[in-house]
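Before going further, it is useful to explain how the protein records used in this thesis are read. An example of such a record is reproduced below.

***
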Amino acid sequence: MELRHLKYFVAVATELHFTRAAERLGIGQPPLSQQIRQLEQEIGAQLFVRDRRGVALTEAGQAFLIEARSVLEGAERAKESARRIASGELGALSMGFTVSASIHPFVPRLIRTFRGRYPGVDVSLVENSTLELMQRVHKGSVDLAFVRAPTADMPGVRVETLLSEPMLAVVPATHELARRKAIDLRELAAEMFIFYPRKVGVGLYNAVVQACESAGFTPAEGIEVPQLTSVVTFVAAGMGVSVIPATMSQLQAEGVRYLPLKGQQPIANLAIAYRPKAPSSALGFAIELSRESARESPYAVGSQI
């Protein structure tokens, strides 16, 4: 039994006339009659009484009509649900981000744009460390994560770098370098550095250390802070200096100065992490929107900053 058999039956049961039902369906009357007979044979019951006065439903036909209409309505609902999910009108999406990624204006702006464009998609947000987010993407509990690349490799997870921004030195406002418009990274060689932990943000940690080593020194590690925003707080307290992504300069903390770096300049990358195998429609739309939005940013990979 196929859905078309049910459609044919409902049309005849509604019109109670084979010729009118055939016209409504857009098929010939003989093929319609043949399909109804085949349906009755498959069921093992007569559905219609046919005589010279017309067509009437049998008791079995009346019972079958209720169920046939229910099945057809269910099929329509299933089709409409699938269509709406495929078009992004419905669905669910879990987005994750690190603290440093959330500070970048790109991330909240993208989430806001996605929710406006796909209001029927239920968006949930998760904040955690890069390692934890990568593990959650791998397990499937997070669909799309915004992290600072590079990250540790995770089987089945793709990391796609979207933005690259310069990093700035942040020093106490009382520091002798604070009056300068820009400094060379080597001028911080004797300073104590405040770090965002490597296990929490490997991308940023490595970017700073590698830039310092390229400048000819290994940074002296002082305090490790649990949150990237805490770096600025500890610098303001005179506990040391640090190097942070340029977008963090929007944190107008009292007692610090943000200084551009000359020469060897570390770069902070913002990336998305996701499972490329069989993504949901909502995830596919979020990935495309991320790429689209990144191309419009002055920090887009490959653009001149």
In short: The chain has two domains: 3-86, 93-305. The longest strand covers residues 158-172. The two ends are 64 Å apart (CA to CA). Residues 186 and 215 are 6 Å apart (CA to CA).
